[in-house]
Write a structure and sequence with these properties.
Number of strands: 23
CATH class of the largest domain: Mainly Beta
Oligomer: single chain
Strand order of the largest sheet: 11-23-13-19-20-21-16-17
Radius of gyration: 40 Å
Strand content: over 45%
Number of domains: 2
Order of helices and strands: EEEEEEEEEEEEEEEEEEEEEEE
CATH architecture of the largest domain: Sandwich
Shape: rod-shaped
Length: 287
């Protein structure tokens, strides 16, 4: 019976090409990441020789294209420009990644901050204390600060507001300014005013009704507290209740002296001290 030679009925994988191995038609080898099929039996003929080999599957990108780009710092990134891969050095804290104006490459961007932003610097609760100190909140970062004190209690509390410097509270007759207030009840109103001149604090003020829990809020504005000249301005605005009268009270002025101020202290000079409803918060105003 006649014999018919069908050749190989499937590819024969031979592994990596070896120059000393004899290869038959349909043998398949690998070389340089690509694979080649033998089309003519041979030995010692490189896979680049088209008489004996045909490319079967070509190697793709192996992921090392960026190996020559110097990513020197944690956070560096790779991007492609018109000619190839490039390094984008890491940005700084709070920066955002965006496209440049030509929409051709990424870049780091520092977002603009609105000039009216309030930044909370401190938040202190007064429960069980007769003194609320906001130490070391004034720095050269801001020119203007807001301090807001809120409370609700049923004893007549009087407040002393004082600047603080690096040595502690300032209470040496350095407070100058003026104050004015309006009280009103069902029978009418009266206006009260008096100077603040050479005192040792912002003035003593009383708000809470003795028998009924009433809310009150005091807002302080402080301008250039770290200035070393006589340019440190302050204003206190009070809204509260005094006996049977609602009261609005405002005081403003400056503190004499060339030293920088570092904080604010609020004390109760009469009454039972601050309770858990008392809270004082300080903000720096950008701009």
């Amino acid at each position: 019976m006649a014999t018919v030679n069908l050749g190989a009925i499937k590819f024969n994988w031979k592994g990596a090409f070896n120059n000393s191995t004899a290869y038959a038609v349909d043998d398949v080898v690998s070389s340089g990441g690509s694979s080649y099929v033998c089309i003519k039996a041979s030995q010692g003929n490189a896979v680049s020789n088209g008489t004996y080999w045909e490319l079967m599957a070509q190697a793709g990108t192996n992921g090392t294209d960026g190996a020559t780009i110097p990513l020197t710092t944690q956070g560096d990134m790779l991007y492609r420009d018109g000619s190839g891969l490039q390094r984008l050095a890491k940005g700084t804290a709070a920066q955002e990644l965006r496209m440049n104006s030509g929409a051709t490459a990424p870049e780091w961007h520092t977002p603009a901050v609105a000039s009216s932003d309030y930044v909370k610097l401190a938040d202190v609760n007064g429960a069980g204390s007769s003194t609320l100190a906001l130490s070391n909140i004034f720095t050269s970062t801001y020119d203007t600060y807001k301090v807001i004190l809120t409370y609700r209690q049923n004893d007549k509390v009087k407040f002393d507001w004082r600047w603080m410097n690096s040595s502690g509270e300032v209470s040496s007759s350095n407070y100058y300014g003026a104050r004015i207030g309006v009280e009103a009840d069902s029978s009418g109103s009266s206006r009260v005013s008096s100077p603040i001149w050479g005192t040792n604090d912002f003035g003593t003020n009383q708000f809470a009704q003795a028998s009924t829990s009433r809310p009150a809020v005091i807002t302080g504005t402080f301008y250039k507290p770290t200035d070393t000249n006589n340019n440190k301005l302050w204003k206190l605005e009070h809204i509260g209740f005094n006996d049977s009268h609602y009261i609005y009270f405002v005081a403003a002025g400056e503190i004499a002296g060339t030293g920088a101020m570092t904080g604010i202290q609020v004390k109760t000079s009469t009454g039972n001290g601050f309770n858990a409803t008392t809270n004082i918060t300080a903000y720096g105003i950008k701009g």
